[in-house]
Design a protein that fits this description.
The complex is a heterotetramer. Chain A is α/β, with parallel strands linked by helices. Chain A is built from two helices and seven strands. Chain A is 14% helix and 25% strand. Chain B is an all-alpha fold. Chain B starts with a helix and ends in an 8-residue tail after the last strand. In chain B, 7% of the residues are buried. The longest helix of chain D has 17 residues. Chain D has one domain: Rossmann fold, CATH 3.40.50. In chain D, strand 1, helix 2 and strand 2 form a beta-alpha-beta unit. The chains are: A alpha/beta, B mainly alpha, C alpha+beta, D alpha/beta. At the A-C interface, strand 3, strand 4 and helix 2 of A face helix 2, strand 1, helix 3, helix 10 and strand 9 of C.
Chain lengths: 164, 150, 450, 187
């Protein structure tokens, strides 16, 4: 994988040793700038945006200089012309995760950001309609957080706390 | 006397109609299980959502224009009933008369259509210079050697 | 009489409070902020500002003259439990907002509770029209994390089964699209052809739907002997039938009026919205993951990528119809080039010992027991892997923390993203066009709501 | 004065049989397709496993014209009140088949998002097992329902006692207030 550090704005750590495809770890301030530079560099489509809660797996492998926080937003960009993918993982913060929205760069991320807000509680500044998308309106709590129980109704005839 | 039983079949038909109508109403009232018009049943059906935005009272005028077209044909049929009773005595003259009448009524329909009652206004359809396409002429086949990027 | 009426009134509040989704719904125009209004009107904020200025709603209607209705969750033509809220000026659509979540099953949460062996059963129920392709995406992601190789025969079996699944998914689309446009005989034909494929699935995997056939490490069982003639029969009959559908639908004036030129989409808008699959290819962008980023053995088979020209409903119909023929072409090559060998990787870490040996040796029994109760450990790391599902790019983002269960499983559903193009496509069309737009986007609510 | 209030004597016996036979032979399902089971329900309605043989030719879309609701698929918490509203708007006499284990008991998804069993929301008459139940299983459950309608056993069970699991008062055999309890946030 060619490294894109030449075009990426300064201060961004790009390291492709971690996983098969290219990963970038901008800070929250460089986040929108980096995505804009990728888009101008030929990454036409933002394929996926999702939140991850690293409460129980805090010590995951991160390049040096990136201080891990509990929440992380993972963005997947795709370049149809160069047939290349890049993954941008931005640390979103511990208790009040807050990340600027990508709606002005890729309008397609509007629903994905609403889902990340709904299931994780990650706020997206300047998002046009930051409301719940999957859960009912008056649902309290964000289900995909690690401290949110599975909501498993104990099954009468089988009390073993197995994987199921 | 003769004239009375002339109307007998109409009377019979009337009674049958009333019998059938009233009969089905009574049967369904009698046989349907316990009926309580629960409030959900009174509410209009909105695909499962309880409606809280009540629909507006004023509908666009296009819906009423279509109703006008029906009125034309309704009136036309009403005038044809008396003709149908005596059309044998009238012979050719009656037939031509009715044809002239329906042509003039048809003129009204032509006027309405030309006024645009049936064309429902600007619809965002790609129609400019649209060739008549078949399901194989509208697509391109990119096989592996002539692989051009997006 | 007054008592029940009062009770009825307050009961309506209880119920309406429960079914109303407050901020998620379409509000009046003055109650929505400009950005959201432009999104609902279908403006795609692209590089050079709005392609469609929301303030110049060309069918300018005062706010109280328009009607907000909802094509609610239980509606015959919304292909599942999609709820579309439309602001209508008489017959024309001004604004649209999809309200989803009515089939949210918490699959990503369940994915974190199930081990890698059990996970395929959960993922396969997301896009219930193409179960094999869901399992394929999940298993290939797990294999990439594990770094194990799948034997050659398993690769080809997986490719053939996912192509068969693509045909059965496109057949269901042809059936429901025909039903939506009034051609109910198309519904009967589509489902009749699909039964051939489901019979073959039942023969190889034991189930018609939700097969749990593709597992990390290979496939659950080998193909039954004599499978070549079954698949040949399927290919010949369906290939002949596609010309029947062509004759039945393409020339029909009603079908043409509702499909030709309706809901056009340009390539730039599609890319901005992240739309993939037949919807993207209908705009002329030749992007098919099987060709652009080949996985399995797609680089060894010969097939065409079908691309449309005008990006309207008719193109999407033509693309899906011809993709059925392309899949048949691939399956014929799979029959000829199917390699011999074992159908599952012999790496004991992933594959349980064969059933026969469990009776004899104790270690095999323990290995089998450990594998199925606790599952196998996957080295920590993360991976994003995408395959081409009949609706677009199906991606699986998997983070593992070294235990036997994925730490985070996120599935990038193509229908979820394609559905957001609904407000752009329906803008300015008539009410009848909304039905064809929802049908040609082909959303499967299982994978939209996950 | 309804069919149940008649005294079951010699005169009214044949009338009841005729009514029950007519109801059994013309059950029209409301297509309440939710998830994978809906695809199997479509396949059952298709040409190979034709449902029209049992008089269920048409899948009515509006509950006003349907008297059987087949809950085909998993019912999420957001969908529960909608399901209850459509059930309330169905005409009497109405029956419910809960198709698939997800509708019957929450099935594979024992989590926060799925109502663990549709009988918490609507009284269910026949449970069709399977995930998804194959068309034969669905037809078997439909035939058992038809059998219950023909023998009148289904109306008898409702008429005498209240359904066992719902704490509705006896004379209200379909409870007015929805029973759907939103599972809060289990901490």
């Amino acid at each position: 994988m060619t490294s894109l550090s030449s075009t990426a704005p300064p201060g961004v750590l790009t390291s492709d040793g971690l996983a098969a495809d290219l990963c970038c770890f901008p800070t929250r301030e460089q986040y929108v700038e980096l995505v804009r530079s990728f888009r101008d560099d030929g990454f036409e489509m933002c394929v996926d945006l999702c939140g991850v809660d690293y409460l129980e797996h805090f010590d995951r492998r991160l390049p040096e200089g990136v201080e891990p926080t509990r929440f992380e937003v993972v963005v997947n960009l795709l370049s149809l012309s160069k047939k290349q993918r890049v993954r941008i993982r931005v640390q979103a913060g511990n208790e009040e995760p807050e990340v600027p929205t990508l709606f002005n760069l890729y309008p397609g991320t509007e629903a994905m950001e609403r889902e990340a807000f709904d299931l994780f509680g990650i706020l997206f500044t300047a998002h046009p309609d930051l409301t719940r998308i999957l859960m009912p309106e008056e649902w309290e709590g964000h289900p995909l957080r690690k401290d949110y129980g599975v909501g498993r109704v104990p099954v009468q005839f089988k009390e073993s706390p197995g994987p199921r | 006397m003769m004239s009375v039983d002339q109307y007998l079949p109409i009377l019979g038909l009337l009674i049958l109609g009333v019998l059938f109508g009233a009969g089905s109403l009574v049967m369904s009232a009698m046989l349907a299980p316990r009926k309580r018009p629960s409030d959900a049943k009174l509410a209009p059906y909105e695909c499962g959502i309880v409606p809280e935005i009540e629909p507006p009272q004023r509908f666009p005028v296009r819906f009423y224009l279509v109703a006008m077209i029906f009125v034309i044909f309704d009136i036309e049929v009403v005038f044809m009933y008396p003709f149908a009773v005596v059309f044998r005595q009238l012979g050719l003259f009656g037939l031509v008369e009715v044809l002239v009448f329906s042509v003039t009524v048809f003129g009204a329909l032509l006027f309405l259509v030309s006024e645009g009652a049936l064309s429902w206004g600007p619809v965002k359809h790609l129609t400019a210079g649209m060739p008549s396409r078949t399901s194989s002429s509208t697509i391109l086949r990119i096989n592996s050697d002539s692989d051009q990027a997006a | 009489m007054s008592e029940p009426v009062v009770r009825a009134a307050e009961r309506i509040e209880i119920l309406s409070a429960e079914t109303s989704e407050g901020a998620q719904e379409l509000q009046r125009r003055d109650a929505t902020n400009v950005n959201e209004l432009s999104r609902e009107v279908g403006a795609v904020l692209r590089l050079d500002g709005l392609t469609l200025d929301p303030t110049s709603i060309d069918m300018e209607r005062r706010d109280d003259e328009t009607m907000i209705i909802n094509m609610g969750p239980s509606h015959p033509s919304t292909h599942g439990v999609l709820r579309l809220m439309l602001e209508l000026d008489g017959e024309f659509v001004l604004r649209t907002k999809p309200v989803i979540g009515y089939l949210h099953t918490g699959m990503e949460k369940t994915g974190e509770v199930l081990s890698y062996i059990q996970g395929a059963t959960n993922v396969t129920r997301m896009d219930y029209l193409s179960p094999v392709i869901n399992e394929l995406c999940y298993s290939m992601a797990a294999e990439k994390l594990l770094g194990i190789e799948v034997p050659e025969r398993a690769v080809w079996i997986r490719m053939m089964m996912s192509e068969l699944n693509r045909i059965s998914s496109h057949l269901v689309w042809m059936a429901t699209n025909g039903m939506d446009l009034g051609a109910s005989s198309m519904m009967i034909y589509g489902l009749r052809e699909r039964e051939l494929i489901l019979a073959f699935f039942e023969k190889t995997t034991g189930l018609r739907l939700n097969l749990n056939y593709v597992r990390p490490g290979g496939v659950a069982a080998d193909l039954p002997d004599g499978w070549q003639d079954d698949v040949l029969v399927i290919c010949d009959t369906i290939f002949a039938r596609t010309f029947e559908y062509d004759e039945l639908l393409t020339g029909q004036p009603i079908f043409r009026n509702r499909m030709v030129g309706v809901a056009p989409l340009t390539a730039e808008e599609a890319l901005a919205l992240g739309v993939t699959g037949p919807l993207l290819r209908s705009t002329g962008v030749a992007w098919d993951l099987r060709r652009a980023m080949p996985y399995l053995a797609y680089d060894q088979v010969e097939f065409d990528v079908i691309v449309g020209t005008f990006g309207d409903n008719f193109d999407r119909y033509a693309i899906r119809l011809n993709e059925i023929r392309e899949s048949i072409r691939i399956i014929r090559q799979c029959i000829d080039m199917m390699p011999r060998g074992d159908y599952r990787s012999q790496d004991p870490k992933v594959t349980p010992p064969p059933r026969a040996r469990i009776g004899e040796s104790m270690e095999a029994l323990i290995h089998h027991f450990k594998l199925f109760t606790e599952g196998f450990q996957v080295p920590p790391g993360e991976v994003y892997l995408a395959v081409e599902s009949p609706r677009g790019e199906l991606g699986c983002y998997m983070v593992s923390d070294g235990t036997a269960k994925p730490y985070r499983l996120h599935v990038r559903a193509p229908s979820f993203v394609n559905l957001q193009a609904v407000s752009l496509l329906m803008r300015g069309g008539s009410m009848a066009d909304t039905i064809t737009v929802v049908s040609t986007i082909d959303p499967v609510m299982g994978e939209v709501d996950r | 004065m309804a069919l149940e209030d008649l005294q079951h004597n010699f005169l009214t016996g044949p009338l009841e049989d005729i009514v029950r036979w007519a109801r059994r032979a013309s059950v029209w399902p409301a297509s309440f397709g939710l998830a994978c089971c809906a695809i199997e329900m479509m396949a059952t309605g298709g040409a190979d496993f034709d449902l029209a043989r049992y008089g269920m030719e048409v899948f009515r879309n509006s509950p006003r014209q349907a008297d059987l609701m087949i809950v085909a698929g998993r019912v999420s918490q957001k969908m529960a009140p909608v399901l209850r509203q459509v059930y309330d708007q169905m005409m009497e006499p109405k029956w419910v088949i809960s198709m698939g284990v997800c509708a019957s008991t929450g099935g594979l998804f024992n989590n926060y998002a799925i109502v663990q069993g549709v009988d918490q929301i609507v009284p269910v008459d026949v449970y069709a097992p399977g995930c998804p139940p194959s068309p034969e299983t669905l037809m078997h459950s439909i035939l058992t329902l038809h059998e219950q309608i023909r023998t009148g056993e289904i109306m008898k069970r409702r008429h005498e006692g209240r359904p066992f699991h719902l704490d509705a008062t006896p004379e209200l055999w379909t409870p007015e207030v929805p029973v759907a309890v939103r599972v809060g946030t289990p901490k």
